[in-house]
UniProtKB/TrEMBL annotation:
One of its GO terms (cellular component) is plasma membrane. Belongs to the RLP family. Signal peptide: none annotated. It is found in: Cell membrane. The keyword Repeat applies. It comes from Phoenix dactylifera (Date palm). It is a single-pass type I membrane protein. The chain crosses the membrane at residues 992-1014. This is Receptor-like protein EIX2. Its main location: membrane. Keywords: Cell membrane, Glycoprotein, Leucine-rich repeat, Membrane, Receptor, Repeat, Signal, Transmembrane, Transmembrane helix. Residues 390-572 form the Disease resistance R13L4/SHOC-2-like LRR domain.
Amino acid sequence: MESCSDKYNNEIHLLHLTAAKFMDLKGTQLLLLLFAFLCSQVRKLNGDSIPGCMLIERNALLGFKAGLKDPTNRLSSWVGDDCCTWEGVACDNPTGHVVKLDLQNPDQDFSLSIDDLPQHNKWSLGGELRPSLLGLKHLNYLDLSMNNFGGLRIPEFLGSFRQLKYLDLSYAGLGGLIPPQLGNLSSLQYLYLQSDIDIMPPVTELSIDNALWISHLSSLRYLNMTGVKFREGAHWLQALNMLPSIVEVHLLFCDIKDIPASLPHVNFSSLSVLDLSMNYINSMMPAWLFNISSLEQLDLSNNFIQVIIPPTIKNLASLNFLDLSGNQFLEGKIPGALGGLCKLQHLRLRGINISKKLHEFDEGFNGCIKNSLETLEMTDTQFSGYLPGWLGDFRMLKVLDLSDNSISGPIPTSIGRLSALQELHLSNNKLNGTIPGSLASLAELVSLDLSINELNGTIPGSLGSLKELVFLDLSINELNGTIPGSLGSLKELVFLDIRSNFLVGVVSEDHFANFTKLNYLDLSDNQLILNLTSHWIPPFQLQILNLRSCKLGPQFPSWLQMQKNITDLDISSNGISDSVPDWFWGSFSRNITSLDISSNGITGPLPNFYSSAMLSLDLSNNSFSGVIHPGIGKSIPNLQHLSLSTNNLSGKIPLSLCRPEFWVFDLSKNHLLGELPDCWNQSSGITVMDFSSNNLSGSIPPSICSLQGFESLHLSNNNLSGELPLSLKSCVSLGTLDLGHNGFIGTIPTWIGESLLFLSILRLRSNKLVGNIPPNLSRLSVLQILDLANNNLSGTIPSSFENFTTMKVLQGTYGDISDYLYYNENLQVTMKGRDNEFSRFLFLVIAMDLSGNNLSGKIPEELANLLGLVSLNLSGNHLTGEITEKIGALRQLQSLDLSRNNLYGGIPSSMIALSFLSYLNLSYNNLSGRIPLGNQLQTFTDPSIYAGNSGLCGFPLAQKCKDDKTNQGPNAVGGDEQNDNAMDEEGSEIEWLYMSMGLGFAVGLWAVFGPLLFNRKWREAYFRLIDQVYDMVYVALAVSFNRLKEHNAVARLFMIWST
């Protein structure tokens, strides 16, 4: 081994050789070069460093690594002598000092969602941040973002890196108060501290109580603190206003409550981007904001900012991006000054309550803005009126979105002048007329959405010329005719939705021949016939296919086997009367998340297949037979919705269905038997359970109400027995309880009115319940349907029933009956003398049915306060008393049945006002008197509805009233000569009556005005009297009016004095 002396001699020799090479350099240059070289060699000899890396900095990095958790061994390269070659480390070439440390998570596909966390955490660094990092004295770049340090606080020592220019700690799982020591980073130009509490545990929330330390970052240019929670009094604006070089500020989701209305001095001379969106700013639009002439991008969206856009917006001459969306209290007129922003390219005003007519805003969109604007988004702004022709003047416009408004009228042809337009969204308006052919001129159009309007006519074949079109949605309109074959030339099309129209005709393979990129296809709810052969090979690979209500059968479509990427498939109501092939339940269904083949004629045994991807399975309304496989809950482990209703299934309900993943069960209308499983303790996610119309027996299991979010229970039409279990008291979220047509005994529990306060539907009909109706049921304020019919209930109808709040309001204005994800609430309601199945319009039904019991006493007058009642059935009881005259207040009533009681007295004449009444039954009571005629009542021509009331008379009964000479019906026709004579006699009497009335009027008029006409004195006296009366009335009114003014003045003075 060489001695130090030998090594030194070798270095001197090398120095001589180097000097010889640079003989031609000037003396000063040569001396500097020699000095630098000698210094580096001496440092090596002293052992201060190793080639390419300072020893002290290498040790600092190793010490920092020792505190980290590295599950995937990302830092495996941190070995050896040269730390400058390590992963994430960069050194300065001339000096060899470490100047950059970039340990950002390499998982660049991370989209900040819960689903990405497992893969993201796999690559995340964790552990602790050790202060050994302070050995990197020359560090100017530090990036620890996208890792997960489990709520660790930001270390205070990070404020000691005086040369640091770039610091990124975003989404690193850091939490707590941000240390003010970061204010010592006077060289810092970029500071990124984004925090997202939606994807990390709540402990990782970053917060700041006093932002004044930010003002010390004198070199700061870019600041992003998205998700950092600013506490009250954080002085964030004052701090930012002291930064002379700040260019961009992003403070999204920071819980900022207000913006100071004024600043002593606006220092934002370099500010280009200001983003304060997604906060709780509830203040006026600050005036100082419009003095920042350098501002190019301003985003104040999704706050609670008040007042209109001020005219001073014209001062922001450099503005190219403005987003004020989601400020619900921001309302009023768009100022004309907006049209003078010649550089504005992107304008977003979504969700602002403008509530004006769109075509009246030409002033705000007139000027040089027409030559610059590229994006105009004004969705959900309460716009009405029509689409103005001047929209076609924005020649640079690329995105036009006016969806979710109330704009009516046709689509103007001037839209076709927008030659640069790439996206046109006009969905969810009231547009009518045909789709203009001028849209074919939009050669750059990529996305066209005209859905949810009232457009009619045919789909223009000219749309086939939009060669760049990727997205086409014409759904939920009134389009008719056939699908033009020219649409098949849209080779770039990825999304096609034309569902819910009146389209007809045959769709052949030629329509799809060029759809090689198609991913989404929805032709549902039309009258289309798909003429596709079994050997057809589709050119596309769909992900979503919806063909509901199209004609696809009778054979099961074998071409589906070629679709390898389908995740959502709906071929319900397709006229398929075949069995499902084996390949369908094999590899084909493994990737499907939602499958609906309901309402066909599919036969065969219920399949048993495995799928970990499936979330929703609907096989209802078919002819599947056999038993439900015992392991169905395990073979489809993530299933959330299962509908097997209306099939021919038998056997017991499998225990494997008791899983926490399930949300909705619908096994109704089968032949299932046995008892309900008592295994629901772990099924925390279930919202709806429908086992109605089977052959189930036994009692309701206690575990069924361990489900915290349980909202709808249907067990009707079974053989269940016993008393209503106390365990149901725990189902405090129930909105629907349907236990009708079983064998339950006992009384109606009072705890229903005490605990189940969210019930909208209570149906206990056709059981064996006894006792009185609990008056406290009236505490169910949102109850919409009460059906206790066909039991053995006794006592009186509680007068407290007038407290059913929902039943007091008009039809459809309050309805609280919910529909659920994957399930539409449905119920059988006995109404108008028959059983009706309601689903889609169930929310409109407000009904009370207490029929078929042993109730007695009078009908409470208070029921007449339930103004929203659509159906009232009290028949088949022992009710007495008279029908209240107040019943005429039930103007929404369509069905009224009071038959088979002991009611007496007359039929109230107020019933004439029940203009919606289409079913009436008052038979078999003790009613008497004349049947009222008029309006709706005279349409009831069936005498049986009054049968069994011997005291009633008049139309439509054959029995005449005593004071009548003939039947009182509006179209009554006598059956014999006596009736004819009676009618002729009555007609003569009416003619004489009218003649005598006319003669009397003429005589009386002449008796008064005749003397005035011929006697001058009488005439003058008469008009003097008229003048005197007029003067007296005028003076009285004038005096009264003056007194009223004096009284109001005194009252105002009193109010001022008292305040």
